[in-house]
Amino acid sequence: MRPALAAIAFGVVLVVAGGLFDAEPLFVGGVALPVLAVGALAWVRLAAAGASIDREVGALRIVEDEPLSVRIDVRAPLPLPGGAIDDELLPGAVAIRGGARRSRLRIEVRFDRRGRRHLSPPVLTVADPLGLARREVVGGDVAEVLVLPRTEPVRAPAGGKPRAGGRRRAMVESAADADIDGLRAYRLGAPASRIHWPALARGAGLLERRMRPDADSRPLVLLDARGGTPDALDAAVRAAASLCLELARAGGCAVALPGDRRATQVERELGAWAGVWARLAVVEPGGGPPGRNLAGRTGPVLYVAPAWSARIGRALAHASGTPIVVLPAGARETGGGRPAFEVAGCRGYALSRAARAAVA
Q1: Is 295 exposed, middle or buried (CB count within 10 Å of its CB: 0-12, 13-18, 19+)?
Q2: Domain ranges in the chain?
Q3: Directed axis angle between helix 273-281 and helix 230-250, to 10°?
């Protein structure tokens, strides 16, 4: 607005000067400048009065490093004199051509870190070609995109022997020993209490009940968010998400995140996975898992943390079996010897009872 007023004022000065010095050529500029300025002001005001800018995000949830489609639409009742689209998802302002009533911009963006992204509304700047007048039109509400941690397959450690991968598969398969409720062919040696007598009476043969395992026998993935750098915490979160997904697909597991009072069960059907995945996306540093989740558990425990600490040994001191500590590859190694597996930039170490006693 100020450049237009300045142009009008300068035009008045030219007219006055032309009259004082009897310089007729000054009248041309003195009249043209105010006319141009008033015309620019009117065009920009009218075009911006009914203009709108809308942003459509392809998804409200996106995985790290995956492309997110974004569309920005500009509409105006009159041909726009020109201007630009400004949005935090763009590397810079994008100019729009003058004379158009509608402009559309399609982009793809990627987020390399998990968490919530609050996207400020896009802004349309309407301006004349001479830069005499400009007005801003702000888009709708703030958009929120949840960036989920990516998951990766569990694999044998680099340079490790094939049996290391076998141990990992055995760990996963042991969690799937007991299947969902149902019937299966009778296995020699199975207790008689499992025989399904109604099926035998109907002539279906000798079948046994396939019992759902006790929740405490499922593998438990514990996430400790204390210590380490932000990058290390992100790696630990990706490892926890990857382990939870693989163990759930293998037969089910439990997962305990910072702030949980009790573990969440994730079944083979992955009904609870979406909620757990969303919570993993917003894990903040500094929170530790509830220690009482280990009391009375008979299944394997996988303790995931961004950095090694003696408190991990104390937390696992009374865990049954051989718990596994999962740490980022650059973290200090535990007394567990060679890593048993790798996942999402982290390594899993079996923490023996002697190692736990040494660090407790």
Answers
A1: exposed
A2: 2-48, 51-148, 162-178+213-359, 180-212
A3: 170
Class of domain 51-148: mainly beta
- Residue among 241, 239, 283 nearest 259 (CA): 283
Residue 240 CB-half CA count within 13 A: 33
Query: What's this model's pTM, rounded to 2 decimal places?
Result: 0.74
In Å, what is the CA distance from 27 to each residue of 21, 32, 196? 11, 8, 107
Higher pLDDT, 240 or 212: 240
Long-range contacts of 352-355 (CB under 8 A, 24+ apart): 352/322, 353/322, 355/313
Report the percent of the chain where pLDDT is more than 90: 20
Give the integer Cα–Cα distance in Å for 317 and 291. Answer: 11
* Per-residue pLDDT tens digits for 73-128: 998 888 888 888 999 888 888 888 877 788 889 999 999 899 999 999 999 988 87
User: 70 Cβ partners below 8 Å, 6+ apart?
Assistant: 55, 56, 57, 58, 89, 106, 107, 108, 109
pLDDT in tens, 8-17: 555 565 555 5
Measured CA to CA, the distance from residue 110 to residue 113 in angstroms comes to 9
